[in-house]
Write a structure and sequence with these properties.
243 residues; alpha/beta; two-stranded parallel ribbon; 9 helices
Length: 243
């Protein structure tokens, strides 16, 4: 079966701009302020894509973040746009970094793209310094029982990987993270979806476009609606390992 990658599809950026995350950089900025990141801190952007967060952190706060992403195509774009930064090809499940080398890890609309979320969270815990921060913003299902149906669609998109928020929280806490902030930001997701519909006519049509027609976008959207997608921001501090 052909597996499409909506994450890499240029048409998404052509329609929506450089970043598709709900709220733009507003939650990125909140993470910087809440965690009190400074120019002295080593910060990682997990699933950096075209490097938008890396660029924002440097331009607004002079923080030179490192970006990691599995896509050679997207990293090539990031390196051209932000030549001052380090971009490394790799996956969240197997990060090529030493233990306890980062003060902060951002995962903005990318944790839901990971093949193994639990393994990725373990890696985040490993590379963070004691007292370091994991800042995640992502989509979740307010009806997680319906998410299983999304697995029938073979394509790469955060909306296919909606989190069960309770299970995600339990996973982080079991590893030794202390969750300091966990808030619903679904209004930002709603605003983004309204913009998509305005630009593209319907969400079903949008999915057909961004997956190059390899799925039935209208059927996918119908199931997605049953899942009741929401959006959250979370800031978790690394404590003692419980493994």
């Amino acid at each position: 079966m052909k597996c499409c990658n909506a994450y890499e599809n240029n048409s998404m950026c052509e329609m929506m701009g450089e970043t598709l995350r709900p709220g733009g950089f507003s939650l990125t900025e909140r993470g910087v302020q809440f965690c009190k990141f400074s120019v002295e801190d080593a910060v990682l952007d997990l699933g950096c894509g075209r490097g938008a967060t890396v660029g924002y952190l440097f331009e607004k706060h002079h923080i030179k973040a490192v970006g990691i992403d599995p896509s050679e195509k997207l990293l090539g774009i990031a390196k051209m746009k932000y030549p001052f930064a380090d971009f490394i090809q790799g996956s969240g499940e197997h990060m090529p970094f030493a233990d306890e080398c980062f003060q902060g890890v951002f995962a903005e609309c990318t944790l839901s793209l990971m093949d193994d979320v639990n393994r990725t969270v373990k890696e985040v815990f490993r590379v963070l310094k004691r007292g370091g921060w994991f800042v995640a913003t992502d989509v979740y299902a307010r009806n997680p029982d319906a998410v299983k149906e999304l697995e029938k669609f073979s394509f790469k998109s955060c909306m296919r990987g909606l989190h069960d928020l309770n299970r995600l929280r339990e996973s982080l806490e079991s590893m030794g993270f202390e969750i300091m902030v966990l808030e619903d930001c679904s209004d930002l997701l709603k605003a983004l979806l309204v913009k998509i519909v305005f630009l593209h006519g319907s969400m079903g049509g949008f999915w057909n476009k961004t997956t190059d027609g390899c799925i039935d976008g209208y059927r996918f959207q119908k199931i997605l609606k049953v899942c009741k997608p929401g959006y959250f921001t979370m800031m978790a501090r690394k404590g003692e390992s419980k493994s």
